[in-house]
Amino acid sequence: MGLVPDVIDLRSDTVTRPTAEMRAAMAGAEVGDDVYGEDPTVNALQERVAAMFGHEAALFTPTGSLANLLAVRSVVAPGQEVLCESSAHVARAELGAHGAVAGITMRTWTSPRGQVDLAAISGLFAPDMGPFFVRTTAVSVENTHNFAGGAVLPLADLQALRSWADASEVAIHLDGARLWNAHVATGTPLSEYGAVADVLGVCFSKGLGAPVGSMMVGSAAAVTEARVWRKRLGGGMRQVGVLAAAAAYALDHHVDRLADDHDHARLLADACGADPGLVDTNIVVVDRPDAARYVAAARDEGVLISAVGPRAVRLVTHLDVSAGDAKRAAEVLARL
Ligand SMILES: *Cc1c(COP(=O)(O)O)cnc(C)c1O
Fold it and tell me: One biological-process term from Gene Ontology (predicted)?
């Protein structure tokens, strides 16, 4: 150790590196050719995750973006639309895949905390009007909501949306990249989240600490079709049980500990003068007059954070940020 302390990386929960125990689980994984459906570790993980959410089937994907795309296109046909919140990951951070690849358009409502706004959603909703308007066939919600600072969507709001969607014959897609965080923060069983959605995407590569891997979850028919589309889009993988083993290890060992990340996030929010009461999970968004300058100053002190807008700075806690790291980062950020 030199004079420069180790860097604390709060840019994203995707920066985690597999632990020694996770690497051992990966090394020992039984594998087969997953395009043939013959990787036992992948098959077990798919069955396990489908069951966790009370759905029939699931499909392992290299990324959460692909899980979302496969999920959304399973319920929205080309020329139809999905409604989502305006800062949703599907709308902002998937590089237009839903339009570019699947011919799907989006209309959005805006909620500062990324919440379900049923009045806005029903106002946007367009039923089948023949040759006049784009038909709404799905609503997409994100829990926790990334760009809203890891905000949790209350289960009651999701259930109200479910009732409305049933009455309106609209499907619900749940972008659950960080649904594990919502589950740990609220104690809501994963099956309750599964019950409000027709299709979901979940990630193992965020706070759970796996190096790669996400999953689309839905009906057997949707997953059978998604398997074709995954291959069509170049996402068919072979002896990928080594990665599924990392995800399975993460489900066994890294879910409950997300509570530590949430504690660390509140500590950091407090140090930055943000309201810890607004920190639901592991993401803190702080208002700074010059975000880029603040980020540079933190970097000089060995704390990596990101500017997500001219005035907005984002900090994310995760598996590779210890209690000591969180405390040291809090001291640095409080000083700046
Ligand atoms: C990270 C993330 C995804 C998936 O991202 P990939 O980088 O494609 O794995 C999807 N939705 C949300 C909300 C995310 O934060």
Answer: glycine biosynthetic process
Which domain-ending residue is among 213, 230, 253?
253
Provide the whole-model pTM: 0.96
User: Ligand 1 pocket test: which of 70, 89, 282 has the largest number of ligand atoms within 8 Å of its C-beta?
Assistant: 89
Residue 89 in contact with ligand 1 by CB distance below 6 A: yes
Query: Is the residue at 22 inside a domain?
Result: no
Please tell me the total count of domains within the chain.
Answer: 2
Instruction: Tell me: do 244 and 283 sit in the same domain.
Output: no
142 lines ligand 1 (CB under 6 A): yes
Q: For ligand 1, atom 2, which residue shows the shortest CA distance?
A: 177
CA of 282 to the centre of ligand 1 (A): 15
User: 304 - beta bridge partners?
Assistant: 9
Q: Which domain holds residue 320?
A: 8-16+257-335
Q: Is 21 among the domain residues?
A: no
**Which residues contact residue 136 at a Cβ distance below 8 angstroms, ignoring those fewer than 6 apart?**
80, 81, 82, 83, 107, 124, 125, 126, 127, 170
Q: Which run of H or of E encompasses 319?
A: none
List, for residues 85-138, the tens digit of each pLDDT value: 999 999 999 999 999 999 999 999 999 999 999 999 999 999 999 999 999 999
Mutation choice for ligand 1 from 143, 174, 206, CB with most ligand atoms inside 8 A: 206
Q: What angle do CA 285, 287, 293 make, to 5 degrees?
A: 105
Mind giving me the DSSP string for 97-108? HHHHHH--EEEE
Would 2 be classed as within a structural domain?
no
CATH number of the domain bearing residue 317: 3.90.1150.10
Residue 214 CB–ligand 1 contact under 6 Å: yes
Digit-coded pLDDT (tens) for 185-234: 999 999 999 999 999 999 999 999 999 999 999 999 999 999 999 999 99
